[in-house]
Design a protein that fits this description.
The chain starts with a helix and ends with a helix. The protein has helices at about 5-10, 10-25, 30-75, 105-110. It has about 110 residues and is mainly alpha-helical. The chain has four helices and no strands.
Length: about 110
């Protein structure tokens, strides 16, 4: 929200009444120091809001960067490359095939 919105919504008469009330409440002697204090608080508020906005944008940038890294690593993991054919074993290196009754069971357990 900008100050232009506030200035557009309040007319000259409302500003005059507002300044008169502030002058009565604060007093003419303390009005400059009160205005300075309000300006300092407004400046602090703007800096805090800007820092908060910057932190949110930094977090968004970091999140986007992390998401891209995950996406790239996932696409690299699923990339189909060249597959080398399996080499056939030598004739003497044959291993016995599991029995048809219980495939996957060790031979010592199958016979019991």
């Amino acid at each position: 929200m900008t100050l232009a919105v506030i200035f557009d919504s309040i007319g000259f008469g409302e500003w005059f009444v507002l300044l008169a009330v502030v002058l009565i409440v604060v007093g003419p002697k303390r009005l400059p120091s009160a205005a300075r204090t309000v300006g300092q608080y407004y400046s602090k508020f703007r800096r805090a809001a800007e820092n908060f906005k910057r932190q949110l944008l930094d977090m968004d940038t970091e999140f986007t960067k992390a998401a891209r890294e995950v996406e790239n690593s996932a696409s690299d993991a699923f990339t189909v490359g060249t597959v080398e054919p399996m080499q056939s074993a030598a004739p003497g290196d044959e291993t016995p095939a599991p029995s048809a009754q219980n495939p996957g069971m060790p031979p010592s357990v199958e016979g019991s």
